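Final report, closing paragraph on structural work. Over the funding period we assembled a curated collection of sequence-structure pairs, and we close with a single example.
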Amino acid sequence: MPTRTVLPRFTAAMTALCCAVTVSMTTGCGGVVARSPVQDLVSERSVPGAAELSQGAHGELRFSTAGVADVRTGRRIGLTDRFRAGSITKTVVATVTLQLVAEHRLGLDDPVAAHLPATTARALRSAPGIAGVTVRQLLTHTSGVFSYTDDSTFFGEFFGQGFATHRYDSHSADALVRTALAHPPYAPPGTRYHYSNTDYLLLGMAIRQVTGHSYATEARRRVIGPLHLTGTSFPGTRTSLPSPHGRAYSADAADISDVTDLNPSAAGAAGELVSTLPDLDRFFGALLSGALLPAPELRAMRDTSASGGRYGMGLFPVRLPCGLTLWGHNGEINGSYVQVLGTADGQRVVGYRANSDTRLPAAAEARLLSAEFCPQER
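Its predicted structure, as stored:
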């Protein structure tokens, strides 16, 4: 959910690690013992546990874990454990939005203010420099609208020293948008890519205005129900995770803290989703294969021209050293990180997660993906 800055660093690591992966992940070249890439995601001091679920072209699944789900009990991460999926919420919201576009209930080039509640529409229209921001610009993070998570007060209360005091506070989308609009825009709409959580709050509000139902209700009807994603939910203001689940941790210089329980309304349509690795693999496989969107809307979702190749509409590309381009999204929120990526046709999907919000080593993520998708690099 925080403003995403990982992709350039991660893509560079993928390129730089091409030769290193060949040595470390094979049993040739001197008989190096194979090591599961998931183990490299775990750190005793900051990342207690990690898991990976790969889905093959013929539906075969392989689940791997390392470390623990709970540092008190030593329990390992389970296949169906629920966790907070952070900004993968955006991919679901983008899917619903593009379904509405396909139904001609929204237009990509509509000013979003035409599809917002009156109070928010007035605030957006009176905000200097961004009055005419469009649905397309929100989806591609080229709106220029300030991300409310970059507000220093909000960041300190939800991600910083104030978390213990404010972790159970409730937040309305309208109030979070007002926080964002109190700041000048990053750039004029359509001129520059800048990841903004406010963009997807506004899309969530537009879904409600157009359909008469919340984005969560529409997502359940259009995505979660049809795909039988039984471990996926929008918690709203519910502070606990549904069972089964492990714990979620944040680390500082001295220790790790349990941050499992929190009020996810601070994330809303930008990052409140709770899910499982099997559900997320199934969702991305269905999305990329064309099961959820007509071909024109799926092409639009993968069009990264507005962002200079960095981001489409709720999806971003990751290019591997072996020449393969994967599509997916990551999610980060207090105590949780997840990334799900798949081939363009959705036939092969890999999701992996850690029960910590400590940034994972880019090299370790690169090794994991090369091992899954570039076997010649082993």
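The longest helix spans residues 88-102. The two ends are 32 Å apart (CA to CA). We thank the funder for supporting this effort.
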